[in-house]
UniProtKB/TrEMBL annotation:
Source organism superkingdom: Bacteria
Positions of transmembrane segments: none
Keyword RNA-binding attributed: no
Keyword Transferase among record annotations: yes
GO molecular function, one term: aldehyde-lyase activity
Keyword entries, A-Z: Transferase
GO BP terms, alphabetized: aromatic amino acid family biosynthetic process
Name of the molecule in the record: Phospho-2-dehydro-3-deoxyheptonate aldolase
Upper lineage: Bacteria, Pseudomonadati, Planctomycetota, Phycisphaerae, Sedimentisphaerales
Organism: Limihaloglobus sulfuriphilus
InterPro entries tied to this protein: Aldolase_TIM, Class-I_DAHP_synthase, DAHP1/KDSA, DAHP_syn_2
Length: 280
């Protein structure tokens, strides 16, 4: 870890705070919500309004979708980015969206407030260097087969190019377990908090792939010390073009947010208590 010069925590109090659209990621309760993919303006705007009412602080949505099958819906591309920007204007929510290709970074920056590097691209070093030269925060998802060290080294690539605003995202890793889509590694939250000053959020949607688990794992993420979550929400989940099995409806999201807000109040009190293991 000695050559992780930029992402390594220098003291227990060392913490990077990234302000986007009035939300201070790493300090404020951060909830990124929206559809897996942008399918139409009506679907995206309706969902954006719903998650804003529920308490989301940012809007997510895929304009470019890397899919396992080449025949699956790949996203609307530029049209999808324009729709996201329209939804952002309607609601005031900043936009988080994935960029797949280094050649696309500069013009995706025109529409996105945060650039997402997905799990399949975590070790796409050309892309990491390009987003490192961008003037937008980067949300870096953990690779599905990656160790925490490998993940942090990828963050180091971005930081080394001059971009200091990196947000780490635990989204589950591939194990022998098949009941869930992936295995959510909540211990990674505490590991990152101990090793790095970068904010960390959790993606329970992709980690579990099961609607019934998203709320409990979201609550567990905050209880573990995560700075935020990112979840998939759709105005009509049964009609979603991808990942419909893990898409929350807007009423489900609002009910979940009520519990998250209550937990956040409790966590504020718990943090005032002395830790079981005091750090030197």
């Amino acid at each position: 870890m000695k050559d992780l010069k930029l992402c390594q925590k220098q003291s227990p109090e060392h913490k990077t705070i990234i302000e986007v659209g009035g939300t201070k990621i790493g300090q404020d309760l951060t909830v990124i919500a929206g559809p897996c993919s942008v399918e139409s303006e009506k679907q995206t705007v309706e969902t954006a309004i719903g998650v804003k009412e529920g308490g989301a602080t940012m809007l997510r949505g895929g304009a470019f979708k890397p899919r396992t099958s080449p025949y699956a819906f790949q996203g609307l591309g530029l049209e999808g980015l324009k729709i996201l920007r329209t939804a952002s204007r309607e609601t005031g929510l900043p936009v988080v969206t994935e960029v797949l290709d280094p050649r696309d970074v500069s013009w995706v920056c025109e529409y996105a407030d945060i650039l997402q590097v997905g799990t399949r691209n975590m070790q796409n070093f050309s892309l990491l260097k390009e987003v490192g030269r961008a003037n937008k925060p980067v949300l870096l998802k953990r690779g599905m087969h990656s160790t925490i060290n490998e993940w942090l080294y990828c963050a180091e690539y971005i930081l080394a190019e001059g971009n200091k605003d990196v947000i780490l995202c635990e989204r589950g890793i591939r194990t022998f377990e098949t009941y869930t889509r992936n295995t959510l590694d909540l211990s990674a939250v505490q590991a990152v908090l101990e090793l790095s000053h970068l904010p960390i959020i959790v993606d329970p949607s992709h980690a579990t792939g099961l609607l019934s688990m998203i709320e409990p794992m979201s609550l567990a993420a905050f209880a573990a010390g995560a700075d935020g979550i990112t979840v998939e929400v759709h105005c009509k989940p049964e009609e979603a073009m991808c990942d419909k099995a893990q898409a929350l409806s807007i009423p489900m999201f609002k009910r979940m947010m009520a519990r998250i807000n209550k937990l956040n109040e409790c966590m504020a009190e718990i943090k005032k208590l002395p830790a079981a293991v005091e750090q030197e």
